[in-house]
Amino acid sequence: MDTTKKQSWIQYADGYLSKTPVWQYILVSLIFPMWGMAASLNDILITQFKTVFTLSDTATAFVQSAFYGGYFLIALPASYIIRKTTYKSAIMIGLMFFILGCGLFFPASHMATYGMFLAAIFVIAIGLSFLETSCDTYVTMMGPKESANKRINISQTLIPFGDAAGIILGKYLIFGGHENMAAEVAGMSAAQKAAYNKEVLLLTLQPYKYILLILLVLLILMAITKMPLSKATVKNEDAVAEKKTSLGESLNYLFHNYRFMKSVGAQFIYVGIQTCVWSFTIRFALRIIPGITDHAATNYMVISYFIWFAGKLCANWLMERFSVTKTMVWYSLLGTLVLLLTVSVHSPIAIWGAVATSFFFGPVYPTIYAHGLDQIKEKQHTETGGALMVMSLVGGAFVPVIMGRVSDLSGSMQLSFIVPAIGFALIMWFFISEHKRG
User: Is the pTM of this model over 0.85?
Assistant: First the structure.
C-alpha cells in the first residue's frame, strides 16, 4: 500500500484509491464536456460544409472520419505516455493539442479548403484521444474499486452540457444571420457564391475563440494541481523492485481476454451508431420538415442532448436498483425500437424518433467502458486497456460512412437510419450475453 504525505487518499497496489479526492475528481470531470462540445460542433460543420463545398452525404461523413480517425491513431501512443509518465501529463498534452487544433481553424477559415478544415479537426481529435484515454480511465481509478462504474457515469453525465453548448454556439455564431444556407446560395453567380462561402467560413472561428479560453484555464488549473498517481504497482518476490509490463505483453493479455475484446467491439458499434444519429439529425429535419431553416433545425440537436442527459440520470437511478446489464438490455431494446419507428413513420414525426434515441444512448458508452475495464483482472494492463477502448471510437469514422452511402444509393435519408437500428440491436445482444455471464 502506498502512502504519501499531505494527501487525503491512500493508493492501493491495484491503482484504486481509498477515497475520491473531490477537487481533483471535479477538475478531471470538467474536461468531459469539452470533448462533447467539440463533437457537437462537428454536426454543425457537416451541415455548413455540405452547402459550402457542395458535398454528398457520403463525403460529409469524412468530417467524422477525420475526427474519430485521430482517436484511433493516437490512443495507443497516449497510453504509452501514460505508462511512462502520469495521467496528469497525458491530460496536459491532450489539452495542448486541443488548443492547437482550435487555433488551426483560423488559417483554415481563410484558406477555405475542405482538406484544411479536416486537418484542424484531426489535430483536435489527437488532443481528445489523449484526453479520453486518460480521463475515462483516470476517473474509474480515482477512488474505491466498487464505485468505479458510478464515478465514470457521473463524469460522463456532464458531456451533454458540452454537447448542448457546442450546438448553441454553432446555432448563434455560425448559423446566426443565415437561416437556410442551401436556399441562400441558390441562384447565386459563381463570384457571389465564392464571396458568400468566404463569409460563412469565417464564422466557424467564432465558437472556437470561446473554447480556446476555457481550455487555457483548464490547462493552468491542471498544471498547478497535485493529482493522484492511480496506477497499479506490482512488486516482485523480494518486494524491492517494481515490475514493468511492456506494451506487447499488455496487448497480448488483452487480445486473449475475450470479454474485454467483446466490450471493445460493442463500443466500436455504439460510437458508430451514436455518431450516425447525431450527424444526420439536423439534415434529416431539413429534409422531412417543410420550410424549416438551418437555424431552427439545430433545436432538435439541443433537445437531443438534454434528452441524452435525462437518459443518463434515469439509468444511474435504475442501475442503483437493478443490475447494470439488465438495465442496459432494456435501454438497447427500446433504442432499437425507436430507431425502427424513425425508419418506418413517413411524416415529420419521424424526426422525434431520432431525437428520442438519445435518451437510450445516455448510459451506453460509460457502462461499456467501465464494464470492459472490469474484465482486466491484472490491473497493470489497465492503461493499455483504456487505450483500446478509446481506439474503438473509430467506429464513428466508419459506420456514418455506411449510413451516408445507404442514404446516397437509396435516395432516402430516412431509410439510412436502419444502419444505427441494426447497430443498437447488436448492442442489445452484447448486454444480453454479459447478463447471462453474471
Answer: no
